[in-house]
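Researcher: Please predict.
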Amino acid sequence: MSSISAVWNSLMIPEFYLSLCMCSFFQIALFFGCQMKWPLKFKTPIQYAWIPTTGSSFIMTFGSLPFVKDYFTNQSDLSSFQLLNSPYAIAFCAYFVSYLLADMIFGYIYYPQHMDIVTGWIHHTIYLVLIPALIHYKVPGAFMVAAVMELPTIFLAIGFLNEKFKSEILFGITFFLTRLLFHVYFVIQLYLVWPTQYTLIFFSTFTFPLHIYWFKRWTTRQLKRIRSYLSESFVQFEDHVDLTSSIDSCISSSVNHIKLEKRGFNNRLDPLVE
């Protein structure tokens, strides 16, 4: 109980609770404002579900860029990371908490069929535990470095907003680079800087199994698409072969028919010749 109380007290700072209040109002305005502004674009549960996710992916990705720049400028050394406990990092963390809460509340009311147990409820609950702990340990800037992992979601959102810009391959590549490769690199660098900070190392690996699970689902989906494409191509090839065979058969039949007619015509000319 003392540790929970300590974490709660860490959140009782203006940078967090004021940001959380303002961002919560923003989530409400965004969710209902999009439906009022573009009623034809947002009229189904799945479209409702994309409203908070799209906003979060853009804000967190672009918000992470100064932190990522500072991270690599300092040779990935979090111990000399200037933005490690900055007010901006805390404010962005508060925004992400507001997104998680909004998505869970709106999801329960407006799109429950699209709130997956693993990728929705479990994922959001993990982050609702993780972010206050990071603020308590005064390392919210580390979370903002990792927030660049929201980049793949932008490509999903762009594809949702405009179908012609949808790219499964681009999503898969950025997902692999950020949520798998960069995630592993981030954890290794964290261990090299703070090898005895087991709690932070544990938190940094907390969501990695979820990322593997998501990438596995994406890979399975792509394999199905490839098999479907190959199957359709094979059917088209068979149809082409059958058509070619039919044409060859028709040509051969026509040639034989012409030969028979020519032979009959010659036979009819023979008595005249005599």
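Model: Residues 2 and 8 are 10 Å apart (CA to CA).
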